[in-house]
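Structure (tokenized):
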């Protein structure tokens, strides 16, 4: 355990942990992290220092390191790291217990059995293949949500690439046109993550400054023009326009952060989330009704 804690602190940087976190709180969190990983996967042999460094990289920007460790899905992180390192037992578990679970997701998207097989193979290769200047993509999994959920999201994006490609038997048929992949992706995101969006939006709106909430409600719910808002707030219409834009962007940023936290995705995976937020935000704002002032 001493080596695990030492490797964690060395990767994190001693300036990132101060006071009590240098002692009981962080040590307890590290003990619990290593125990959870070993209990879940006793047959997977990963060097403690390797796991410690990976965890430190995930929480190094957190304001409270010990607390951040306690929020991670440690068993899933341990498995993903073992898969990235090519551990045969981990790869077998990934195929048997995790990738098999994404088949229903792909089936609901309308993929045939052969297309599902192809999607899973492409997905597996993309997640696990070594890259010359970067770690395998499975290490993009941040541990802030369940690995199964993250894999379903990856599978959906991979499957959408397949859906966006014409069937090879239809390539010469001018009467058949595939729906653009971007539209398919947005439709899938709305169906799959609509509830997550609304929870994230509600949390982000509640955390917004009262003046921002009021301004957004007046602009989108009450449909006041920038000229009317300018007169109401005794400022120029151009100034109000900038205020509204800034408030909206703060709401977008906070909603995105909430969705990333709940879905357990990193910044490399947020492009689809941003499309969903931008497509739904103004509609949701227009129905604020009794939003807090």
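Design, position by position:
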């Amino acid at each position: 355990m001493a080596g695990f804690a030492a490797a964690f602190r060395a990767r994190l940087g001693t300036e990132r942990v101060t006071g009590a976190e240098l002692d009981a709180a962080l040590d307890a969190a590290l003990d619990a992290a290593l125990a959870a990983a070993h209990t879940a996967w006793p047959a997977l042999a990963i060097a403690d220092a390797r796991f410690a460094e990976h965890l430190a990289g995930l929480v190094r920007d957190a304001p409270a390191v010990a607390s951040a460790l306690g929020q991670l899905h440690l068993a899933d992180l341990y498995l993903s790291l073992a898969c990235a390192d090519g551990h045969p037992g981990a790869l077998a578990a990934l195929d048997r217990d995790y990738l098999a679970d994404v088949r229903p997701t792909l089936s609901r998207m309308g993929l045939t059995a052969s297309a599902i097989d192809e999607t899973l193979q492409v997905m597996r290769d993309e997640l696990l293949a070594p890259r010359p200047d970067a770690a395998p993509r499975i290490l993009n999994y941040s541990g802030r949500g369940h690995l199964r959920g993250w894999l379903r999201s990856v599978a959906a994006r991979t499957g959408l690439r397949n859906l966006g490609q014409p069937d090879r038997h239809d390539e010469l048929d001018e009467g058949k046109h595939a729906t653009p992949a971007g539209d398919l992706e947005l439709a899938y995101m709305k169906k799959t993550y609509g509830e997550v969006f609304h929870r994230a939006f509600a949390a982000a709106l509640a955390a917004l400054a009262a003046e921002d909430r009021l301004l957004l409600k007046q602009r989108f719910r009450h449909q006041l023009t920038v000229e009317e808002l300018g007169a109401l707030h005794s400022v120029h219409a151009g100034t109000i326009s900038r205020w509204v834009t800034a408030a909206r962007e703060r709401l977008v940023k906070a909603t995105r952060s909430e969705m990333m936290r709940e879905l357990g995705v990193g910044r490399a995976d947020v492009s689809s989330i941003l499309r969903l937020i931008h497509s739904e935000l103004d509609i949701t704002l227009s129905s604020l009704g009794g939003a807090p002032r």
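Reviewer-requested clarification: Confidence is low (pLDDT under 50) at residues 166-182. The CA atoms of residues 146 and 185 lie 21 Å apart.
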